[in-house]
Design brief:
Layout (H helix, E strand, L loop, with lengths): L11 H9 L2 H13 L2 H8 L3 H15 L4 E4 L2 E4 L1 H28 L4 E7 L5 H13 L2 E7 L2 H9 L5 E5 L9 E9 L1 E5 L1 H8 L5 H5 L2 E4 L5 H12 L9 E2 L3 H10 L3 E6 H10 L3 E2 L8 E9 L6 H16 L1 H5 L1
Parallel strand pairs: 3-4, 3-5, 8-9, 8-10
Antiparallel strand pairs: 1-2, 5-12, 6-12, 7-10, 7-11
Helix pairs in contact: 2-3, 2-4, 2-5, 3-4, 6-13
Family: Belongs to the LysR transcriptional regulatory family.
Protein name: LysR family transcriptional regulator
Pfam families: HTH_1, LysR_substrate
Length: about 325
């Protein structure tokens, strides 16, 4: 077996991949991963089955082991095959994004950036950030999901960076974060219910009997609600609806005078401004995990991501949301 020279810095396995692995191999791997059939993969690529069989044999020779086993369900990946499929998907995604970025630059715009943002980040932060990026010629693809889901997408090279709660990134390799601003929780309801509750002292047993719409208990706010009631030795309420959608929460609160929710204060402010939702005038001594910018450690930083980082920090530093937190 050959050994990499000290000057190359590459192992013999890396050299084998660089010298022998072709784009058609990656394309075949991604087709096999999705279709689980050599015949269907060959049809999708517009090649003959013998040509696909030959390519697969070449790939398995490069990886020095079988990548698939035959079963009644079709071709099933071996552990080595699972690794090859995951890497091939990421490489093909990178090539696709590379192509999109090239088209962006050719059309006269600066770059394209794919950003993941949790739903509980206010438009009062996002709108000026996006406006400034567009003014600088940077196109933005915005993804909305929970932090854990967005981190999965970032690790899979589907997005470039995330605005979310950094607690979900603890223990993940090759990621770092910077705190943008703090958030405190607010109890929100239909204005009639909010006034009725505000006239009483905090009564957790009474609140447990009210219908709730909440994020999943696996999210910071859902977990916080469970802990709030548990500390008061009251069984936590079971949410009638579990959702992270700000629009759905606000819409259901407007239409139901017996429904409660807890959201960050800045999101509660946005709901109040839109009308039909009010905050309950109770003081909370609780803080949510802060909103952070989460990025991958890169050998060469993306210029568009650097500009995004600078702009989002400037907007947060000057925003009334941060001053109120």
């Amino acid at each position: 077996m050959s050994v990499a020279s000290p000057s190359s810095g590459l192992s013999s396995h890396s050299q084998r991949l660089l010298s022998r692995l072709k784009l058609r191999h990656l394309t075949l791997l991604t087709r096999l991963g999705r279709l689980r059939s050599l015949t269907r993969a060959a049809d999708a690529m517009g090649i003959s089955q013998p040509a696909a069989t030959k390519s697969l044999a070449e790939i398995e020779d490069i990886f020095e082991g079988p990548l698939f086993v035959r079963s009644r369900q079709g071709l099933l990946p071996t552990p080595l095959g699972q690794l090859a499929l995951a890497r091939a998907e990421r490489m093909m995604l990178d090539l696709d994004h590379w192509g999109q970025e090239m088209e962006t630059v050719r059309s006269g715009r600066a770059a394209q950036l794919r950003v993941g943002v949790i739903p509980f980040v206010s438009g009062r932060i996002l709108t000026p950030v996006l406006e400034r990026l567009c003014a600088e010629g940077i196109d933005v693809v915005l993804h909305r999901a929970t932090t854990d889901r967005l981190l999965q997408e970032m690790r899979g090279h589907e997005i470039d960076c995330v605005i979310g709660r950094a607690a979900a990134a603890v223990g993940l390799d090759n990621m770092w974060h910077q705190v943008l601003y703090a958030q405190r929780p607010a109890l929100v309801a239909h204005p009639a219910l909010a006034r009725r509750i505000a006239r009483t002292r905090p009564d957790w047993r009474m609140l447990a009997q009210v219908d709730w719409i909440l994020p999943s208990s696996a999210t910071p706010i859902g977990n916080m609600v469970t802990e709030l009631f548990t500390r008061q030795q009251v069984r936590p309420p079971v949410a009638r609806v579990q959702t992270y959608s700000v629009d759905v929460i606000a819409g259901m609160l407007r239409n139901n005078q017996n429904l409660l929710s807890i959201v960050p204060e800045d999101i509660a402010h946005d709901m109040e401004q839109a009308g039909g939702v009010a905050r309950v005038a109770w003081e909370w001594n609780w803080d949510l995990p802060p909103i952070s910018l989460i990025r991958q450690v890169r050998d060469v930083p993306l210029e568009a991501e650097e500009r995004f980082s600078c702009i989002v920090r400037e907007v947060c530093a000057s925003s009334a949301i941060v001053a109120q937190a």
